Amino acid sequence: MENENITTAAPAEAETVDAEAVATVPTEAQEPAAAESEAKSAGEQEGGKDTEPAKPWKTEQNARFAEQRRRKEAEEAAFRALVDGVNNPDTGKPFADRGEWEAWKRKASIAARAQRAQIAPETYAKIVEQAREELKRSDPELQAQAQQLEQYKQRERENIFSNDLKAIRKAYPDEKAKSIEELGPQFVAMCASGISPLAAYEALRAEKARSVKQPPSMGEVRPKGSAGKEFFTREEVAAMNPTEVSKNYDRIRKSMEQWK
Known about the structure:
Helices cover 69% and strands 0% of the residues. It has helices at 2-24, 30-47, 56-82, 98-117, 121-138, 140-171, 185-192, 197-211, 234-238, 242-247, 249-256.
């Protein structure tokens, strides 16, 4: 009696799947009707004064999207027909989508191969993953993709540095550097620590100017009490000698962040 129920229920399920598949595919009668409707709509739009003619690239794009949608619907209908009445052995429920189906197939394949190799499935899965990682490192196509990504990142960095250099040369037209590298590694290090490019440049420029100045006269008074200060102005930093700059470097960097 139970067998008879199963036999009679199966066609009903098949009819449901077929109906869903048929509903997603336009019939020959529907396609001309849709084309005629679109042509009529296009004609009405052309009659308006402000309506622009349809762009060829837009029509081609819409056709491509429609083709992709139809292909996806056909694949989904085929998948549903394939797994109709089949449950996921792990969950006891029907497969939700193709991704779940593919994941179960991979797991079942690994389990079968592990059994033939007489090792635990988890161990076999690790071996497979290691092989995939090794393939990524040795595969020329994957290496080319990684190289392209690195080149893109390098171009982004160069664009940022180029903009920084433009801002510096705008503030100091006498600067002759053609690249950030020509400003020196100390400039790059200061920028990497969070100091703005212009502030870092001004600090290094002031330090360079001090290095070529004549020694101060005996009557010149230098800033005092710098040992206990936490903030220095541009003028105070400019008046320091290299030893004082080195001694107060960390506090000078913090002060530079507040310069305007």
